[in-house]
Write a structure and sequence with these properties.
- 28% of the residues lie in helices and 30% in strands.
- Helix 1 runs antiparallel to helix 2 and helix 2 (28-44) crosses helix 3.
- By secondary structure, it is an alpha/beta fold.
- 44% of the residues are buried.
- The longest helix has 17 residues, at 28-44.
- It starts with a helix and ends in a 19-residue tail after the last strand.
- It has 12 helices and 26 strands.
- It has a 7-stranded mixed sheet with strand order 6-5-3-4-7-8-19, with helices on both faces. The chain has a 7-stranded antiparallel sheet with strand order 14-15-16-21-20-18-17. It has a 4-stranded mixed sheet with strand order 2-1-10-9, with helices on both faces.
């Protein structure tokens, strides 16, 4: 009974709202009944503990209760959403899936057994322990998608400590470590999950107003879109108490503008990885990019400017890549940081640093400067090879109003001269009229991505 403590929470809070899905309220009593129904369905389908099972859906009542039932049974869960539709066959093969459970838009499901032998050592070891597992695929924005395997038991342990109960939007996806963390945090504290099918600013703001949402876990890219859209002006967001942000570096300009518009909303920077889980965090202040991370079960250190973490909840390994851990268990995150009095400031990914004639340029710093430039709706900065300098800085820009490239370049250069070192000023500008982020509202800097 691996989910016994969750079921105890459901029982003790039977009358409270557990989930709002398409406007329908689901109580904890109903959710508990659904978990028990799934246990009977799985038994009827001869599903054994350790079965590698996909949940292909979103935060629907049946998908959520199925997740709890599979954890309770001791299965290895592979959550997949529609954002990876074309890659699902590949992901099922990598994870050696033995059972697929697919949900449609009406929350009806199709259950299929797969004739397959599980041969992956990590999966076999997890099966032998009798513990439930979790397989998460990375976004693959700068390379191939890696499949991280977790033992669910240490991941669940941190949720046994009672914390605040909040009404929370499920902005981060069902197959993302942040989405899984949001779900388990709320279920373990008898909070209310407010599901959304549309993650555009207008729809998110409408959901906050309609359902009295208190917590919005999101990304810097989305917060910038929210500011540009001005959807916040058309909806009452007074219920909002806390906004958490992560997955990418927050531009200082976006943080300051959001904080000035919502001074009563606490802003908290979060940090987590598919390989490690989500660390506890504490921002120095709502308008500061300095953050403490760690807490019980986590150790941090900085080696040559790069963050390394050792975690009790670390993954067991990748299914399709070599182990990234040092011999003594430290994970090299690849994140460049500064450290001061126990706080970290994230500068960017080591793989995204632009080297201009031997000088380092962090894309987020340039993006932060350009987002203050009037007329710029959004910007994504990356590097491009250059025969003389090694690389040059390239800015992909969404403009609020039509403007010639020559006029914008002239205005941009004049603006940047007082704010950026000469080598940080973009040498090439590309005006685009399409989104600069992926389905997970995270900027994609891979070459050719925009």
């Amino acid at each position: 009974m691996h989910a016994a403590f969750l079921k105890d929470v459901f029982q003790a809070n039977a009358e409270k709202d557990a989930l709002i899905w398409r406007g329908n309220v689901v109580s904890y009593a109903t959710l508990l009944e659904s978990v028990d129904r799934w246990r009977r369905e799985l038994a009827k389908a001869s599903v054994e503990p350790g079965t590698v099972t996909t949940i292909e859906g979103d935060f629907s009542p049946d998908a959520v209760s199925l997740l709890v039932a599979l954890i309770d049974l001791g299965c290895i869960v592979v959550p997949l959403t529609s954002t990876v539709e074309t890659k699902k066959p590949e992901f099922r093969d990598i994870a050696q899936v033995e059972l697929t459970i697919r949900f449609n838009k009406e929350d009806s499901y199709l259950l299929d057994h797969v004739d397959r032998d599980v041969t992956q050592r990590i999966l076999l070891d997890l099966k032998s322990r009798g513990n439930p597992g979790l397989v998460l695929f990375s976004s693959g924005s700068t390379g191939k998608n890696k499949a991280a395997v977790h033992d669910f038991v240490p991941l669940l342990d941190k949720f046994r400590v009672e914390r605040h109960s909040l009404r929370t939007i499920t902005f981060l996806l069902f197959d993302h470590i942040g989405g899984v963390n949001t779900l388990l945090y709320n279920l373990s504290n008898a909070g209310c999950i407010v599901t959304i099918q549309d993650r555009r600013p207008e729809a998110v703001c409408a959901a906050i107003e309609k359902h009295g949402v208190e917590l919005l876990p999101t990304s810097p890219s989305f917060l910038n879109l929210l500011l540009v859209s001005e959807a916040y002006r058309r909806h009452d967001l007074s219920s909002l108490k806390l906004v958490t942000y992560g997955t990418e570096v927050m531009p200082q300009s976006t943080l300051e503008r959001f904080h000035s518009l919502f001074p009563d909303v606490r802003l908290l920077q979060t940090y987590g990885l598919s390989e490690l889980g989500i660390l506890r965090s504490k921002s120095k202040s709502s308008d500061s990019l300095w953050v403490k991370i760690g807490g019980e079960g986590f150790e941090t250190r900085v080696v040559d400017g790069l963050l390394e973490i050792r975690a009790r909840s670390a993954m067991l390994g990748y299914l399709n890549a070599p182990s990234p851990f040092t011999e003594d268990g430290w994970f090299k995150t690849g994140d460049c940081v500064e450290e001061e009095d126990g706080y970290f400031r994230f500068l960017g990914r080591d793989s995204e640093i632009i080297n201009v004639g031997g000088e380092k340029v962090y894309p987020a710093e340039v993006e932060s400067a350009l987002q203050r430039l009037p007329g710029v709706a959004d910007v994504m900065v990356n590097g491009e090879p250059n025969a003389l300098l090694g690389q040059i800085v390239v800015a992909h820009v969404n403009l609020e109003e039509e403007e010639s490239l020559a006029e914008f370049r002239k205005r941009m250069r004049s603006y940047c001269k007082e704010r950026l070192a000469p080598y940080k000023i973009p040498q090439k500008v590309v005006v685009v009229d399409r989104s600069l982020h992926g389905d997970r509202f995270k900027k994609i800097r891979a070459p050719g991505a925009v």
